[in-house]
Every structure is written in structure tokens, then in C-alpha cells.
Design goal:
heterotrimer; A alpha/beta (about 220); B alpha/beta (about 260); C alpha/beta (about 475); A: about 220 residues; alpha/beta; Rossmann fold; 2 domains; 4-stranded parallel β-sheet; 4-stranded mixed β-sheet; about 30% helix; B: about 260 residues
Amino acid sequence: MSARAEILADVRRALGVTGSEASRRRAVADRLEHAPQGTIPARGQLDPAERKALFRAEAERVLASVAEVASNADVAAEVATYLRRRNLPATLRAGADPYLAALPWQGLELAEGSPDGTAALSRAFGAVAESGTLVLVSGKENPTRLNFLPPTHIVVVAAGDIVGDYETIWQRLRGAYGKGAMPRTVNFISGPSRSADIGRTMQLGAHGPRELRIIIVGGK
Amino acid sequence: MNTSATPRVGLFVTCLVDLLRPSIGWAAVRLLEDAGCTVEVPPQTCCGQPAYNSGDRNLAKDLARQAIDTFASCDYVVAPSGSCAGMLAKQYPGLFAGDPAFAGKANAFAAKVYELGQFLSDVMKVKAVNARFARRVTYHDACSGLRELGIAKEPRKLLKSVAGIELVEMAGCDRCCGFGGTFAVKYGEISTAIADEKIANLKACGASVLLAGDLGCLMQIAGRLSREGSGIEVRHFAEVLAGMTDEPAICRPKRTPRP
Amino acid sequence: MNAAQFTRRAHLALEDKQLQTALSISRDGFTAQRAAAVARLPEFDSLRDSARDIKAHTLAHLDLYLEAYEKRVTASGGIVHYARSAKDANDIVVSICRRHGAKLAVKGKTMIGEEIGVNAALEANGVDPVETDLGEYILQLRGELPSHITAPAVHLTKEQIAADFRRAHRDLPEGRDLTEASALLAEARAVLRKMFLSADIGITGANFLVAETGTSIIVTNEGNGDLAATLPKVHIVLASIEKLVPTLEDAAQLLRVLTRSATGQEISTYTTFATGPRRPGDPDGPEEYHVVLVDNGRSALLGSEFAEVLRCIRCGACMNHCPVYQSVGGHAYGSVYAGPIGAVLTPALVGIENAVDLPNASSFCGACESVCPVRIPLPKLMRFWREHAFERGLVSVRQRLALNLWGFFAKRPALYRFATRAAVRVLAKIDGEDGRLRKMPASWTASRDFPAPQGETFQAEFARRKSMGRRS
């Protein structure tokens, strides 16, 4: 018997089942099909303006910094100001996101390549107000490594993509990738990297970025 | 169950109170009688926790059967201990879960068990007591009472009705004192380290008297305080509620007070 | 280390000033942080019920969810391996490494990896496993086991860590100031960044496996596990079979209680959902994605009275709130899993005869159960182990005799009243008027006085007053 068959047999023996009981199979199929929601905190169940405000407050609570701009045309100026204030070079590592590429980047340069040591720019798939969480998905548009390697990570998110809770993100992912499928990597990011492993004092920039800058576009 | 105006309460006095500090039992009797109960003390030994927590389930069941039969004729069973009341009310049913012949009896018994403060407050609706104790006190939430029976407000509410009393809260009032029954003897060193945490919080809160509802915890805290020569007094809250504080505090001298 | 020497190690831990300093720093932090997070979320207890129910449902249907999960992993291009034992799991990991000629593996934090000893297996086969969680990395330098699930190096001070770095990092200039935690972090980050960029294999654990999508979920604050899952060309997920949850919705319920219970965070900094290997057009991600599903005793637990322990999501709240753990630290337990959860799991892994102290060294204060996000009745399960130990004669002769003697009297109320009345009178005489006993045979009086009996048993006095027609 294979290890797989042995483990399944051991589990079934422990449960006192055969694995072919129709009621059990139906219970599992139903749950996988309908994905019932459990308890969803009331905290994020807000209208769009309040939701954006909650997202911002929660993100700042976990030490991200947040800027809001009125439109796509204002993103570059906000990024440039941030980089200047941080004394960072005007070159950003980024993927091949057509949305980002289409923004007017006067004076700034987006380049592909290793973000080890430079600032990087990504566009979020969405964001969750409940916990101030950005949601990024892998792919050539926004490579996953940009989320972890640079010391400074700048993430653009559309105000309309901020949702109340994780469950709404699942619905959007199912819409985009199909039921039962997922992008290779989905990253929930809530603030900059940190560690409290030394003497229980929190330090930012453990392995990932020390700074997380969020730019919310629109919704004003 | 007898629902007449004077309920018959069986006092489960607990083995520790029976042997070491009967004054807690007398305080309980007075409080129950003042609240309008008839108090009975049928011949009893122990709730069985030492056996139950040492893994001797059979002995625990024997003692549980004995206790259940002993108090069969009482309307209520009241113990001046959250730990023993927790054993009677929350653990007995589980002991007989696989014994349909006795399970019903155990469940019915469990339903009439109360810890003293809880019984006075929730069943007899006692709002205030007639006692005076002009001291700054703090209350330690003994673990079983707090987490098995959910007792926290009741004793505090009753204590606040005592004339002259000042009730202050200590940090970590809901943390274990390190007693834990046989744990205190089998792992004496760890038990003592835990007591020292409790005592540090006790000293920081500025109370001169610590009160709690379990003699086990009280022995642990008083025993450690006494060993270090602290002047903080330790008593069961029932003694204060009943106005019976003439008896020296736990581990304190009988006649000549220490300087 | 082994779990059989608990008392001796507990004694050493209580004497260890440095350890006590480290524990005192962490002691109040964890509980206050959790309490604050719970206070901010009115639905917390409802989420705990939900979390408990999801895990219970999944365990009751584990065979079917394993099959569904495997199907989704395979569909996304990943490979699922099954390992009944620690050895089988290590063999699978080693063979994957061999096939790739791997020399260096970067590791995210994995408790199952600690449990099966995967590092030793890798080292024995020429693969250098490097822990990348800062705490785990420090422990690896020291050759120690983690002392805590979520804060593995909680028992160490900054000064100890600085000394470890000076010893292990050969390129470190002598004059480098390592007094601040930030300097220590920068040093570790620089050393480990090189490892991430050159490793052949990334090994992570999984907080959850999602049957609906074939996804493995890890939760980190540092971003280390996430890099281990992204940069090397092979990603191996080590997970025990009880990590399954049905759907993404279910995972969200559990994530909400996990981080709040663990560190008081609303959510961890990074929650990473990995599904299969690199897709066409992906500029990064592993070329191979393996999941090693480990049983190592779980299926046996599933059929036992300990099944509820399989709900555990490894948050560490039970140890953060345990007075015993907080006094002696994690190493006293001599096992990968410390604290109340270790007291239940370790005997299952190594046999109760090798860990009889662990479920016994608890005051049964119940704090663990009261904070457990999946409502595992830990004291009840510890008591079950005590019953096993008692039945198998693993308690000392002295203890058994004492219990039998006490039981003999306790079962005979009349005899009991007679004997205790006599004993109490004698004891009350011994102390004179002092009110306390300073020396008794049992270990109580080594550190505490014992209250002298007031002189007469309550029952005897009650009977006397009753016969005289008087009450109180």
C-alpha cells in the first residue's frame, strides 16, 4: 500500500468511516461548492468613503504610511515627492503592469530587475479595510519579489478596490481566476516587515521592506 | 425541589475548611441562615478532586457517588469554595457520562450546586450584608470559581456592601496563585514561583488584606507571605461578609499578635 | 533533551537569572496585547466558535478533504507527498533536495519541521538548512530548540544574541556596535539576504492548507517564509495532515483568531497564499512546488480521546497565559511543543512513559482553555494523560500509597471524621500559639508555612452544637 493509501485508511479507521458514505461526501462537496461565510466583523461593513477612511486608519496603525490622490494623473507627483523626502533615487523597480506603465511618470523611471536595495512600485489587486491590508497577486505585472526585497515598497491601490473584509476579496479572486483556482501567490500585506524576536522590542525591516507607502487613488 | 421560602441548603464544607479552618464554615452557616436558609451538614469527606486530578478516576467516581447520595435530600448544595463547587457542578456529570444509570442523578445533583458567594447573590438575591471591616482589601479570583463557574462580580458586589471596607484591585487578580491542589506539593518550587508573582502584584496594590473564596489559594498565599514575614493578612471573604473576623487571619498567631 | 527531566530543568530555569529576566519582559506583553486585540473585536468569541466548528468539521471529514486538497494541488501543477512517519517525511525532503543537487536550503518557521528533525536529516545528507525566522536563526546558531511557538527566542536577552553573532559571523568587524536590537536585526538581515538569493530550496511550514484551492498559507511578520517560498527554484511545504481547512472563507475565520491570539495583531504583516509552482509568464516563484503531508501520529490521535488537540492552530496563547510556562520557560518541557499544548501533544509523540511530568505539572488553572482560539479543553486532555499514567502505574509508589490511604478514609465518612478529628487536634497542639507550621513532611513547608488547624474539625463542632441545640 502507498503511504497515501495507508494514511487515508488510518484516518478512516480512526473516524470509523469508509470514505464512501454519501452523506459525508455530500457535506464536503457542499461546503467546497458554497463556501459558507462564518462570522464577519461589522467593523468593515461601511459605505465606500468610510471604508477608505477605515483602511487608511488601520494601515497607519500597523505603521504603513498612506497618501491619497484624486486621480491617476496625480500618482507620479506623489511618488516623486515621497522619494525626494526620503532622499531616494528617482528610479523605481516595477513589473509590467499596464496600468502603472500608462501613468504619466515625468522625471521618474520604472525599471524591471532586482529590487534588492532600491525602492519598488506595485499595484494592488485590492485592499481590506477591516485590517488595513493590501492584497497583491503574482504575475509579470507585479512580481512577488517586489513585495519583499526592496527596503521601500510603494503600492498603488484604487479607492474602488478597497473592500470591507477578506471574504469580498475571495469573491473578487473567484471572479478573476475562476472557482477553485488561485493566482500562484496572493500576498496580504499589512504594514512594513517587522520582528520582535530580540528582547521583545519591535524592529521594522526584518527581511522585507522597512517602509510601506500606500497611495490610494480616487474616491475623493 | 423544595421551593418554599426557607430552602434546605446542604453545606459542602470542603475538607480543607473542615480540618484546618472551621471558622470559614461557621461564616458560611451564618450567611446562609441570615439569607433565610436552613443549613444542614450531612457527614461528608471530600469532593474527590485529589483523586480526579491524580488520574484515579475510579476513586473519584466512588467519592462522587458518595457525595451525591449524601446530599440527596437537600434543595441546594453550597460550598465555600469555587474549586470544590466546580468539581461537583462541572466535573461530576462528565465522570458518569458513560453510566446511564447514574448520569441522571449526577446531572440533577450538579444543577443544585453553587459556590457560596454565587448562591447568596444569584439564588438568595442578597444585595448587602450586615458587617463592618474597615480595611483596604483586595480580592483574588480563584481559578476554578472564575473560569469554571464564571464567578467574578458576585463576591466583589457583596464585599462592597461591608461597612468601612475599601476594595482595591490588584494587577493579575485573575491569575493563578500556584496552588493547584497536589500540584503545590508535587511541584513545590514552580508553585512557589507562581505565588511570588501573585504576591508582587498583591504588594503593589496597597491592600493590607487579601480575600478569596478558596482555602487552597488562601493557604498558598498566606503560607508564602508568612514565610517571608509579611504583615498582609489573608482571609476567606465569607469571614468578612459574616462579620466574623475575630479569629486570627490564616497563618497568624492565635493570641499574642506578632510585633 | 527529553521530556522526562522536567523537574530538574524547571529547577535550573527558576535559578537562571538571564532566563527569568527574558521571561519577565515577555510575560505581561503577550497577555496585554491579546486582551487589547480581543477588546477591539466584539465578534471575537463568535469567531472562536466558528474556528472550533470549522476545525471539528474538517477533522470529521479529513479523509475527504485530503483527497479534495490533493486534487487541487495537482491541478495547479504541484506535487503532494504523503509521509506516515518523521523518517518518511525526511526521506521525501532529502530526495527532492538530492534530485536538485541542493547545497543550501532556506527555511521559514515550521513546527512540524522541528518535530520531525528535518534539519538533522538535511545536514546528514549534505544540505545546509538555514533558519530565516530571526528567532529560529538565533537558536540555530546556539543549537537550541525553540522555547515558544511564535517567539522562539523569547528566553534570550540582546546581550546573549550579540555574543552569538560575534561567534558565528566570521566577517563581522570587531568594532561593530551590536548593543541595540536594530543593529542585531540589520546584521542578521544582511547575512540571511545572501542566503535567500543563493539557496536552492525553500522549505516552509503551513498555517493552513485550503482544500478548495490547493493553497498553502503562511503567516509571518518578517517576510522570511514568504521569501523562502518565492526565490528558490524549489518550494517544499511541510505540513501535518490536520492543517487542512475546507475553503478560503474558513481560512479567513481562522486567520482572524490566530494572530489576535498569538501576538494581539489584527492580522500578521504578511499572510501569503501559495498555490502551485511558477505559472507561464511569471518572473519569479518556484519551478517546483511540493507539499509533504505528514501524519506522524495524527491519525492515531484522531481516533482517541485526545482528538480535540488536533484543532490546535499553534498560536501559543496557551503558553502565554500559563503560569507554569511563564515561570520555567519552554525548554523545561524538553520537547518541541511546550506549555499546555505541549503537555498534551508531547506524550502523544514520545509516549506518556517518557513525558509523565508534562501533563502533571499544571495547576489546572484553566487559563489556557479560556484563551484557546479553537476552544481545546486542555486541562481535560491533560487529565486524560494523568489517567493513562495512573492506569499504567507510572506514578510514584509514595504518591499511590498516599492516594490509596487517603481514599480509604475518604470513602468511610464515619471513620474519616474520627481520624481527622484526632489528627487535627494533634496538629493544632504542635504549633503552640503561632498559628502556623513551619516544618511538615511534604514539600509544602520548604518554601511556605502551613496554617495550623484551628483545633476542632468543623463537622465535629457542628455535631456538638447541634446536639446542644445551638447553631452558629
